[in-house]
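Students often ask why we bother encoding 3D structure as a string. The short answer is that it lets us treat folding as translation between two languages. Here is a chain of 433 residues written in the first language.
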Amino acid sequence: MRRKLIAAVGVAALVTGAAACGSGDSAASKNPKERDETLTVWLMVDAQSTWPELVKDVNAQFKKKYPKVTVKVQYQQWADKAKKLDTALGGDKFPDVVELGNTETMTYILGGALAEIDPKKYDNSDTWIQGLKDTCAFEGKQYCVPYYAGARVAVYNAEMFRKATGSDTLPQSEDALLKAADKVRDAYGAKDKRFSSLYLPGRYWYAAMSYVAAYGGRIAEYDEGSEEWKATLSTPEAQQGIAHFIDLVKRYNKGDQTKDEQDHANVMANEKAALLYGNGWEAGSVIDGKANGNPKLKGKIRTAGMPGPNGKALPSFIGGSDLAVVSKSQVQDLGEEWISLFTSEKSQEVLASKDILPNNTRQLEPLKRKASTAPIANAVPDAWFTPIAPGWTAIEKEEVLEVMLLDILKGSSVADATKKADRKINELINQGS
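And here it is in the second language, the structure alphabet:
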């Protein structure tokens, strides 16, 4: 598919010709022990909280080769990272290496903010998970390195299901699952009117779009003739999936239906929910006392594949992060080498040991047979992804999908709300931020 290169107004302006040249040959040709530059790395806070030893080890490896180079790792929050990065790229204090969510990369690629990389310099690049690799590619060139993958699964309280249904195994069909959820609701909801046997927040667009994918719908499709993306949420298939999601929210969510999924692990930790649809690692968050979890639930929280409609598993969003070198950086070669160490086979083993999905299918295979990771690892091959379009970041920033879902929960018809969303998506999707 050939995508039209549309100038990303704003991000494109952040990169000037002179600054985009990166590190010169003179710096790269120096003796490594004589290099005395500073390398600034922006990582998301996940690395600080969940695999800090990996960051420490990679920095130690890097320091051994470049003893005079200072590596500054600065941890960022997802909520304001994009805004901070745009501001930084517009000035003279910007990171050399940046972690990007895989839905963010295309805007920065089209805007010229990311330097081209050579996949051959990175371990297992021939088996990078396609859903991550695609988010880093444009017109045959690669602009970032897959870091780790994620997929959503059922996270459930096995004890609650066992007491209510007689089985602590999650049913494999949606019909059977909903019958079990009804029993759990009857068993626990009578005492607590805010208890949700299935907790699906109304603004949880990742879940809603999984149901859209289950019915064969899409958020948008690329038109080869016009070389433009066109929204498709108002198609019958997409509308059917959205209606299915809304029905589940109304039927089972006894909490605040207008919330998003950011605190749903805490809802389960507080024993206000028996089942949620989330990232596999959120099972750990439910019981982690340091993360507002409930250690008393240890051994009771499990993951499983989430059953979907039509007798099939619910398609999962292929989430994850990528790492890129900023094109304005004067130490691009150092950035590339740091990323190479941080995404090496050895480093990916550290992530896999923490039940985080690695960036390649070769190291993913063993996780498909490991009890704690099998549900999430097996969800990767059939996962869906957001449109790899220049305006997707703008669509997320304006919360177009969340607004659509709230409109329906407040009384708008699915038909009216999806048509409204399509108009807004078409306004934004082919334009850079």
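Translate back mentally: The chain has 19 helices and twelve strands. Keep this in mind for the problem set.
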